[in-house]
């Protein structure tokens, strides 16, 4: 019985489910350097980089009804519902024409994670987790963004705390499924990318390398 329901669901979801894209979740605290590494992966491996935060900001900027709702929720300090972010991600995935995606800064919590799998029927291929100490992240953010108002010590610590409380359970969930690829993000950029490359390089290429 279940298979008929699944088939019907797949038809409803259209091309999204048909070609089952490769999705890699990219998680790491503020200042862990994941943005830089995502850019490297895009350049070397042809992935499309999707940042949940960027998509939400672009939607707000567009002035759409959806964008206004998102803006109001953020202003009121509310969390944007998972479905809203997931729909934006799905739309961006379809529009890109690609089938390999780095989804950056999402899922931010367990609810995001569960909703993504329910809505898209996609489980990530693996999770790239940029592990970096709080001291190192703090040092990087303070030296990198002099003058950026959200980069004072107190705010950085708050952001780190939120990351630890919300996103670590997601990392732990995928770790229990053997899907987490942990990277020591405290090393220099080049060394970190070597570690990333070793993980992202397709298996068949590794064999012939």
TrEMBL record:
Q: State the EC number(s).
A: 2.7.4.14
Q: Name one GO biological process term.
A: pyrimidine nucleotide biosynthetic process
Record's subcellular location: Cytoplasm; Nucleus
Q: Which residues bind CMP?
A: 112
List residues binding a ribonucleoside 5'-phosphate: 57, 78-80, 105-108, 148, 159
Q: Which InterPro entries match?
A: Adenylat/UMP-CMP_kin, Adenylat_kinase_CS, P-loop_NTPase, UMP_CMP_kinase
What is written in the cofactor note of this entry?
Binds 1 Mg(2+) ion per monomer.
Catalysed reactions, as listed in the record: dCMP + ATP = dCDP + ADP; CMP + ATP = CDP + ADP; UMP + ATP = UDP + ADP
State the GO CC annotations. cytoplasm; nucleus
According to its UniProt record, which cofactors does this protein need?
Mg(2+)
Superkingdom as given in the UniProt entry: Eukaryota
Keywords for the protein's UniProt record, in alphabetical order: ATP-binding, Cytoplasm, Kinase, Nucleotide-binding, Nucleus, Pyrimidine biosynthesis, Transferase
Q: Name one GO molecular function term.
A: dCMP kinase activity
Residues that coordinate or bind ATP = 31-36, 144, 187
Q: Which is one Pfam family of this protein?
A: ADK
Q: What does this protein do?
A: Catalyzes the phosphorylation of pyrimidine nucleoside monophosphates at the expense of ATP. Plays an important role in de novo pyrimidine nucleotide biosynthesis. Has preference for UMP and CMP as phosphate acceptors.
Q: Which family does it belong to?
A: Belongs to the adenylate kinase family. UMP-CMP kinase subfamily.
Which proteins does it associate with, and in what oligomeric form?
Answer: Monomer.
Q: What is known of its domains?
A: Consists of three domains, a large central CORE domain and two small peripheral domains, NMPbind and LID, which undergo movements during catalysis. The LID domain closes over the site of phosphoryl transfer upon ATP binding. Assembling and dissambling the active center during each catalytic cycle provides an effective means to prevent ATP hydrolysis.
Family matches, as NCBIfam families = UMP_CMP_kin_fam (TIGR01359)
The protein's name in its UniProt record: UMP-CMP kinase
Q: Which lineage is the organism of this entry classified under, starting from the top rank? A: Eukaryota, Viridiplantae, Streptophyta, Embryophyta, Tracheophyta
